[in-house]
Design brief:
The structure is a homodimer.
Chain A lengths: L20 E13 L4 E7 L2 E7 L10 E10 L7 E10 L20 H6 L1 H4 L3 H23 L3 E2 L5 E2 L11 E4 L2 E5 L4 H11 L1 E9 L12 E10 L4 H22 L1 H7 L12 E3 H7 L11 H15 L3 E5 L33 E6 L2 E9 L3 H10 L8 H8 L5 E7 H9 L20
Parallel strand pairs in A: 6-10, 12-13
Antiparallel strand pairs in A: 1-2, 1-4, 2-3, 4-5, 7-9, 8-9, 10-11, 11-16, 13-14, 14-15, 15-16
Helix pairs in contact in A: 3-5, 3-6, 3-11, 4-10, 5-6
């Protein structure tokens, strides 16, 4: 029978009046048996507390328990207060031995063990802190956009055709006919700019990635933003800057303790993110002027340059060749003195950008086409019929503003922040080519 | 060429100094041509503004435009200020005629027209306001839980087996092997209580509903909550009360204007939601004592009773028969003077509840089993092998606290709030048996 006394969280034990009776609940994080007594370290959502047990059994690690005892000052205990003379009541059956020792300061299990036992390995304080960074980042993402007049939307994950990219799409049996899982909310967030002007969505996206890499998942969380009445992609980049700064602020505000536990290197976001044109970027890294994309080593070199030259963990590369961007991408429009000439035989630059974070691509964004005739032309240029896009094109035929947006992969962000080698280490229950459980 | 002047939102026009030049951007909401002039009503995300055009063409309705002109006091204009002597620049090609007249105060189109042209019909100020209520509700939902120590999680939508309910599940071709789309995050949110104690998730869930009703969708947004270290389902109900109150507060704080536009009847959430036991509920509505569930007319009668007796739009019915609840449901444990006896031959009552909102089921919740032996027994009682649930059961074998939770269907909530006849009217892009587009 549990006591009716109000619960004290482990992190609040330090504020308990010594000598008073307290009630804690949590998991047996560790038992340390000495000759005359046992130390029970209790873990709850707030942290750890030390319980001194002089008689009686302590349930095995990970068993959930109630502890009612006396708050007692002890400079050696976490927070300076421990619990003595406890009555310990197990809240479930004795727990099976965990697949890894969760009480050790670092989680040393190999990745397959970590992933196979995710419901248990996420309990490790360092591992849990990684997700706390993700959650705090999302909170900061939303707070920034809410304050800037954006509306949160929820768009459908079932889509009729695989038109957006065609490749790597999951097929579903939809009441006996084929449907697909959305690879991004791209088409829908654009249509909703027509309604709300400024929208964002946090939700799962699905990619049938046939490659088994440390960077790819079959399902991940996309932080999507789209806004209307921009002048060009630089307006989008300014919003992205504020969003990333808001994610960082969210971490400092809501997950300071998780930063400490993970040793995450939280970046400082400059007031203005440095921007280089794709053509200049190629020249800077010594790549041929007709390269259509940046290789990972180019991105790393550019990241190092941004840090040295601008003291910035972030660098935007703008103007990627149209040929490497999706059909709805707006062509380059920043004319003027500094506009680089288009190389001969080249489809031209685009009003799009990648944001590099410490030399790795974190975000892709840019301005989209917005006139119906430009969509018709772009779709025909792919050898397709605009009629196949009729539902999407409705929005444009009925009046859309110049607009653009971007998408941040949540797991990539957290992986960079914490420096883990594999994106699966920061995904609660990763899904990939080989893994569909737990 | 657009002006470089800073944009004024329609809602801010009333604060512009008369005589100054202002720049607005938005959609041509309406053109009203009189003999000597044309009134252009401009619509942006913030509202409407009146522009007086004395010469030149006004683009057709829904075309996006920039308007640069003089702010001029006029008591007849919305907010007391209109724009005169405008220079109007179209930002796209002339818009096609909308499928419905968006400038009319009410949207009178039939449901199929509404849905077929969703990207356009959502632009109607009343229709848009319905989603604004949904977005503000979600914001209030999260704010309440963030403040109460909950962690936001993102759980996988691809699952290996259809074990949770078996029926109405969508199958996916997952790299050549079968997978399913999660019907709820139930199993995962429970496992994550083992990590974070208190979790919530806002995300899509997938139900292959073969019925074409006004209440069901193939994909909807579920607001899921789960928390540990409860005593029984009444602790869950208390959190639910606070969450619903938070959703209402979110509406008042962030969507007051949308309440006005939709005429939504926003409820007052009582400090404590009245609770009746399922057995008493049956007796109150004159149903036989061995009825296993409440019929819709019973729910309506109970809703009317709650309003009359308690002045409450909400009523919780607790103790539903175990036979009608999922296998992970905790049996009734509130013993004592008032506990109703179990009828003979009856599997017993459960620690679960439904929350009725104005006589309609809005939320199902309750306490779950938490010991591994109770799961093994419950799964075997269904004639199944616990080994099939190995991934899920890991969490329980390694120590779980007493816990429970609930799920709110976002679209159902908004539908009740706004009084629409069909849930599709409050879903941005509904998916059902027949509809997969737009």
């Amino acid at each position: 029978m549990r006591s009716t006394l109000q619960r004290t969280l482990c992190s609040d034990l330090s504020t308990a009046e010594p000598g008073t009776t307290v009630r804690l609940e949590g998991w047996v994080h560790r038992r340390r048996e000495l000759a005359a007594l046992t130390f029970l370290v209790l873990r709850d959502r707030s942290g750890l507390a030390q319980v001194v047990v002089r008689s009686g059994e302590v349930p095995p690690e990970e068993t959930t328990v109630e502890v009612v005892g006396t708050a007692t000052a002890n400079a050696q205990a976490p927070g300076g207060v421990e619990v003595t003379d406890p009555v310990i009541t197990a809240l479930t059956e004795p727990a099976a031995t965990p697949p890894v020792e969760l009480w050790r300061p670092t989680l040393s299990a190999g990745l397959p063990t970590m992933l196979d036992h995710a419901p248990v390995t996420w309990r490790h304080p360092v591992q849990r802190a990684r997700w706390e960074l993700a959650a705090a980042s999302v909170r900061g993402f939303r707070a920034t956009l809410d304050a800037a007049g954006f509306t949160e939307v929820q768009t459908p994950k079932f889509v009729e055709s695989a038109t957006e990219s065609g490749a790597n799409v999951f097929a579903v049996d939809y009441f006996g006919r084929p449907a697909y899982l959305a690879q991004s909310p791209q088409f829908y967030k654009q249509q909703l700019v027509g309604v709300f002007e400024r929208v964002y969505e946090v939700g799962p996206v699905f990619r049938a990635e046939p490659h088994d890499t440390v960077r790819h998942l079959a399902e991940y969380v996309s932080l999507d933003v789209e806004l209307g009445f921009i002048r060009d992609h630089r307006d989008v980049l300014r919003v992205l800057r504020d969003v990333v700064a808001g994610m960082v602020a969210g971490i400092h505000e809501h997950a300071a303790d998780a930063v400490e536990r993970t040793g995450a290197q939280v970046p400082v976001v400059p007031e203005e993110i440095p921007v280089v044109h794709f053509r200049d970027a190629l020249a800077m890294v010594g790549a041929p002027a007709d390269e259509p994309d940046l290789a990972p080593e180019h991105e790393r070199a550019l990241g190092a340059w941004a840090l040295e030259e601008h003291g910035s963990d972030f660098l935007a590369v703008e103007g990627y060749p149209m040929a490497k961007r999706p059909f709805y991408t707006h062509p380059w429009s920043r004319d003027g003195a500094g506009a680089p000439p288009r190389p001969p035989g080249h489809a031209g630059w685009s009003n799009s950008f990648d944001l590099l974070f410490r030399g790795l691509e974190l975000v892709t964004g840019g301005q989209r086409l917005h006139t119906p005739s430009s969509y018709d032309a772009a779709i025909r240029a792919r050898g397709e019929d605009p009629a196949a896009y009729a539902a999407y094109l409705q929005a444009f035929r009925h009046g859309m503003p110049p607009h653009g947006g971007f998408a941040i992969g949540l797991e990539r962000w957290t992986a960079r922040l914490t420096g883990v080698a594999n994106i699966r280490e920061v995904t609660l229950f990763p899904r990939d080519l080989h893994r569909l459980t737990p």
